[in-house]
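Weekly structure sync, notes
Attendees: PL (lead), two postdocs, one rotation student
Agenda item 3: pending single-chain targets
PL asked that the sequence for the first pending target be pasted directly into the notes so everyone works from the same version. It is reproduced below exactly as submitted, 92 residues in total.
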Amino acid sequence: MAVKKKIPMRKCVGCGEMKPKKELMRILRTQDGEFMTDTTGKKNGRGAYICYSKECFQKAVKNKGLERSFKQAIPKEVYDRLEKEMGEIAER
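Predicted structure, written out during the meeting:
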Protein backbone atom coordinates (compact mmCIF):
# COMPACT_ATOMS: atom_id res chain seq x y z
CA MET A 1 0.00 0.00 0.00
CA ALA A 2 1.49 3.32 -1.08
CA VAL A 3 1.83 6.02 1.55
CA LYS A 4 1.00 9.57 0.47
CA LYS A 5 3.62 11.95 1.74
CA LYS A 6 2.23 15.19 3.13
CA ILE A 7 3.48 18.29 1.29
CA PRO A 8 3.97 21.27 3.63
CA MET A 9 2.07 24.32 2.40
CA ARG A 10 2.94 27.96 3.12
CA LYS A 11 1.22 31.26 2.31
CA CYS A 12 2.98 33.86 0.17
CA VAL A 13 3.02 37.29 1.88
CA GLY A 14 2.77 38.96 -1.56
CA CYS A 15 -0.10 37.29 -3.42
CA GLY A 16 -1.63 35.44 -0.45
CA GLU A 17 -1.75 32.07 -2.26
CA MET A 18 -1.04 28.80 -0.48
CA LYS A 19 1.76 26.94 -2.29
CA PRO A 20 4.12 24.04 -1.53
CA LYS A 21 7.00 25.16 0.70
CA LYS A 22 9.60 24.17 -1.93
CA GLU A 23 8.13 26.65 -4.46
CA LEU A 24 8.54 29.63 -2.12
CA MET A 25 11.55 31.54 -0.84
CA ARG A 26 11.94 32.03 2.90
CA ILE A 27 12.89 35.45 4.25
CA LEU A 28 14.36 35.19 7.71
CA ARG A 29 14.78 37.50 10.69
CA THR A 30 17.58 36.34 12.97
CA GLN A 31 17.70 36.86 16.73
CA ASP A 32 20.01 39.82 16.07
CA GLY A 33 17.24 41.49 14.05
CA GLU A 34 19.03 41.01 10.72
CA PHE A 35 17.01 40.06 7.60
CA MET A 36 18.26 37.55 5.01
CA THR A 37 17.08 34.98 2.50
CA ASP A 38 17.11 31.36 3.60
CA THR A 39 17.51 29.05 0.61
CA THR A 40 17.66 25.88 2.74
CA GLY A 41 14.58 26.68 4.84
CA LYS A 42 16.30 25.34 7.94
CA LYS A 43 18.05 28.33 9.54
CA ASN A 44 16.97 29.50 12.98
CA GLY A 45 14.74 32.55 13.20
CA ARG A 46 11.33 33.90 12.30
CA GLY A 47 10.47 33.26 8.65
CA ALA A 48 8.05 34.54 6.05
CA TYR A 49 7.52 33.01 2.61
CA ILE A 50 7.25 34.73 -0.76
CA CYS A 51 7.02 33.59 -4.39
CA TYR A 52 10.11 33.93 -6.58
CA SER A 53 8.34 36.43 -8.86
CA LYS A 54 9.17 40.12 -8.84
CA GLU A 55 5.44 40.97 -8.88
CA CYS A 56 4.85 39.14 -5.59
CA PHE A 57 7.80 40.94 -4.01
CA GLN A 58 6.42 44.31 -5.09
CA LYS A 59 2.97 43.38 -3.72
CA ALA A 60 4.56 42.38 -0.40
CA VAL A 61 6.31 45.76 -0.21
CA LYS A 62 3.17 47.67 -1.17
CA ASN A 63 0.77 45.90 1.23
CA LYS A 64 3.43 45.60 3.97
CA GLY A 65 3.14 41.80 4.05
CA LEU A 66 6.66 41.31 5.42
CA GLU A 67 6.18 43.98 8.08
CA ARG A 68 3.00 42.25 9.24
CA SER A 69 4.72 38.85 9.33
CA PHE A 70 7.65 40.12 11.38
CA LYS A 71 5.55 42.56 13.45
CA GLN A 72 8.05 45.39 12.92
CA ALA A 73 8.96 48.08 10.41
CA ILE A 74 11.50 47.07 7.79
CA PRO A 75 14.02 49.65 6.50
CA LYS A 76 14.20 50.43 2.75
CA GLU A 77 17.81 49.17 2.57
CA VAL A 78 16.62 45.71 3.65
CA TYR A 79 13.99 45.65 0.87
CA ASP A 80 16.64 46.69 -1.67
CA ARG A 81 19.05 43.96 -0.51
CA LEU A 82 16.32 41.29 -0.47
CA GLU A 83 15.25 42.25 -4.01
CA LYS A 84 18.85 41.92 -5.21
CA GLU A 85 19.25 38.52 -3.49
CA MET A 86 15.94 37.33 -4.99
CA GLY A 87 17.17 38.27 -8.46
CA GLU A 88 20.37 36.30 -7.96
CA ILE A 89 18.49 33.24 -6.70
CA ALA A 90 15.93 33.38 -9.53
CA GLU A 91 18.72 33.40 -12.14
CA ARG A 92 19.99 29.99 -11.00
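Discussion points:
- The longest strand covers residues 25-29.
- The beta strands are 9-11, 18-20, 25-29, 35-38, 46-50.
Action: rotation student to compare against the earlier draft before next sync.
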